[in-house]
Design a protein that fits this description.
signal, TIM Barrel, Glycosyl_Hydrlase18_Chitinase, TAT_signal, two-stranded antiparallel ribbon, EC 3.2.1.14, about 15% strand, chitinase, alpha/beta
Length: about 350
């Protein structure tokens, strides 16, 4: 995810090396597009998620709203462009209790009170939007690694959902994730809020194989998972689902990397393309709205592809995500208008 006070450096060399290690250890890689799971693969006949999906459009635009000022346009929640269907409030913070999180409004946003913020949440919800609380970010230090911390995480998220009226939770933990206990925690949230909207924003390296902890978590909660918007940036070069290496900042990177998730067990409705809303929003990997739209077309209809073309199409693909609504506003709202408009026109 983009950072609060600075853009994150491009860790391409390190991550590309890790990607190669995943490939060598038997991660999900096919000999070529025709050698992937294909039309009879694991996700071919899977129904759409039962919970959370009802509150989110079939094709949705997700945007992260910054609860801090890092040089992007400062917004109140009500200022977020109407094109965004899911708004992830960034970020919840760790407390002194392992696994537990809290949320505090940054005074820089200009809210007179928490009640004003809660009113903005209700107004967005009245307009058909989902507002979720994002946990983590680049500097986030939330750790859920045992029964107690999983319980603390779930209890605190449930409490914040009740207090502020959030529709759900977004998992953006960039410093490690334990699938066993995060799954346990999210199932506890779902048990108390059956209509919870659960989103994730793993880094690219976290979704290269179903054996990775993030991927395992997504698969473990796929009966109520809403969408995984992988951060297809700050990544360097990575292996696509055809085993070839693709450089970030290209339509092939978006499509070949998303293919791994689509053929690895997630329903197309649970896959979104996460990108920076402007060149300033990340250390590397920015693509223009037209490239995002081309990737959406390639995956949903098999058109406008680059050199990589998936062996089948995924018309149910959920959509796209921007880091962030603030950087989008600073960039003239190009992502909301161009990508948002395209997402909402998908069949």
């Amino acid at each position: 995810m983009g950072t609060r006070k600075r853009t994150r450096i491009d860790r391409g060399r390190l991550l590309a090396g890790l990607a190669a290690a995943v490939l060598a250890s038997g991660g999900l890689v096919a000999a070529g597009p025709a050698g992937t799971a294909g039309a009879t693969g694991p996700s071919a006949q899977r129904p759409a998620p039962a919970a959370g999906a009802a509150a989110v459009p079939k094709h949705a635009l997700t945007g992260y709203w910054q609860n801090f000022n890092n040089g992007a346009t400062v917004q109140k929640l009500k200022d977020v462009d109407d094109a965004y269907d899911i708004i992830a409030v960034a970020f919840a913070e760790a407390t002194g209790q392992p696994g537990a999180v809290t949320f505090t409004l940054d005074p820089a946003l200009g809210y007179g009170s928490a009640a004003d913020f809660k009113a903005d949440i209700k107004a967005k919800q009245a307009a058909g939007k989902s507002v979720v609380l994002s946990v983590g970010g680049e500097k986030g230090s939330v750790a859920v690694g045992d029964d107690a911390s999983a319980r603390n995480f779930a209890d605190s998220i449930n409490g914040l959902m009740d207090e502020y009226g959030f529709n759900g939770v977004d998992i953006d933990l960039e410093n490690g994730l334990n699938s066993t206990y995060m799954t346990q925690a999210l199932k506890a949230v779902h048990a108390k809020h059956p209509d919870v909207v659960v989103t994730m924003a793993p880094q690219t390296i976290d979704m290269l194989s179903p054996q990775n902890e993030y991927f395992k978590t997504a698969l473990a909660i796929k009966d109520f998972l809403t969408v995984v918007n992988t951060q297809f940036y700050n990544s360097g070069s990575m292996n696509g689902c055809d085993g070839k290496v693709y450089a970030q900042g290209s339509v092939d990177f978006l499509t070949a990397l998303a293919c791994t998730q689509l053929e690895g067990g997630l329903d197309p409705s649970q896959v979104g393309l996460g990108v920076p809303a402007s060149p300033r929003a990340a250390g590397g990997g920015y693509v223009s709205p037209s490239v995002v739209n081309a990737a959406l077309d390639c995956l949903t209809a098999g058109t406008n592809c680059g050199s990589f073309k998936p062996s089948r199409t995924y018309p149910g693909l959920r959509g796209a995500m921007a880091w962030s609504t603030n950087w989008d506003a600073a960039n003239g709202g190009a992502f909301a208008s161009q990508v948002g408009g395209h997402v909402h026109q998908l069949p």
